[in-house]
Amino acid sequence: MTAAELLKSRPYAPSAPEKRAMLLDGLNELTVHHRRNCVPYDRIVKALFNGADTVDELSALPWLPVRLFKRTDLVSVPHEKIVKTLVSSGTTGQLPSRIFLDRETASSQARILATIAGDFLGKARMPMLIIDDASFLRDRTRFNARAAAILGFSSLGRDHLYLLDEQLLPDWNALSSYLEAHRDTPILLFGFTFIVWQNFVEAALAEERSFHFPPGSALIHGGGWKRLEDRKVSEESFKAALAERFGIERVHNYYGMVEQVGSIYFECEHGRLHTPAYSDILIRDPVSLEPLGVGEAGLVQVLSVLPRSYPGHSLLTEDLGTIVGEDDCPCGRNGKSFRIHGRLRNVEMRGCSDTRPVPAV
Ligand SMILES: [Zn+2]
Q1: Domain 3-355, architecture per CATH
Q2: C-alpha 247, offset from chain centre
Q3: How much distance in Å is there from the Cα of 138 to the middle of ligand 1?
Q4: Going along 163-204, which residue ranges are E strands?
Q5: Tens digits of per-residue pLDDT, 24-80?
Q6: In this structure, which residues have their CB less than 5 angstroms from ion ligand 1?
Q7: How far apart are CA 144 and CA 157, in angstroms?
Q8: β-bridge partners, 338
Q9: Which of 60, 64, 147, 183 is the most buried (most CB within 10 A)?
Q10: Which sequence spans correspond to the domains of the chain?
Q11: How far does the centroid of ligand 1 lie from the alpha carbon of residue 327, in Å?
Q12: How far is CA 333 from CA 19, 22, 316, in A?
């Protein structure tokens, strides 16, 4: 099965053996495509992975360390075909990643996001509250990963209200009018985890405000727990505060990264992140890089059949995670389910660049 055919599968339908066979075909085909069309990628595969074109196991696929995209522009299509460049937000002192999308890769990304979100939220577009400010819409020079995620997710809803101003202060009056206007319809909320906490939940607590969202309203949030962990905010207290302050009972975290389009993993009602048909994760020992089994914590490798315009179909991240199970979540969705524990600390010292040096490209 080709990557294009796999993209037509329902996100959580294929069983583990079906999915493995489909993914292996799609990913092997992408390795061949990228080696033919991206010279630096071909050099890396030759140097680090014995140059094999196709492999029999997902764990034997060549992978790139995710930080390579910070140092090198990797593209597998002619430059004139690039329609969109994604730039990671990056932390201070770090170069951002640059990811190049052609029309085909960009449109499959949008379609897959809608398919996956539809499985959790239903097909109907809900009125949508975005817990962020809209200034990036006016200033495209600030078009980074955060802006790209907001734009991507905003296509899931309608009648958008951006709740925050440029200082990230909420406009509570606008929210009241919005809730009044959409009294009988569940509302979809979207925001970055830390901004939702600080500029929505804590802001409401500080001003002793509470609102009642219609039943069925749902929040999607992502971007990592790191800053909440530093403040000792647990997932449970995050969810409890949203239920108490706003009446929002459905909260879905998601895990994803700008470097791999199509790797979008939603958290189900049972608190597990799920791999859809088009992508998968593997866990590797942070030191030996050997693949680990269910229940063992290690570095997360992400696989996706979407990246065709740049060689990002198999990436080793710097995130730590654990596979919880496969095809056995009580929510009924097939695929692996997993948890993320945060970022490997001092990854520059201990990470993949130490054990498998990446050649200059
Ligand atoms: Zn589940």
Answers
A1: 3-Layer(aba) Sandwich (3.40)
A2: 26
A3: 38
A4: 188-192
A5: 999 999 999 999 999 999 999 999 998 777 899 999 999 999 999 988 899 999 999
A6: 268, 270, 272, 329, 331
A7: 21
A8: 273, 323
A9: 64
A10: 3-355
A11: 9
A12: 13, 18, 25
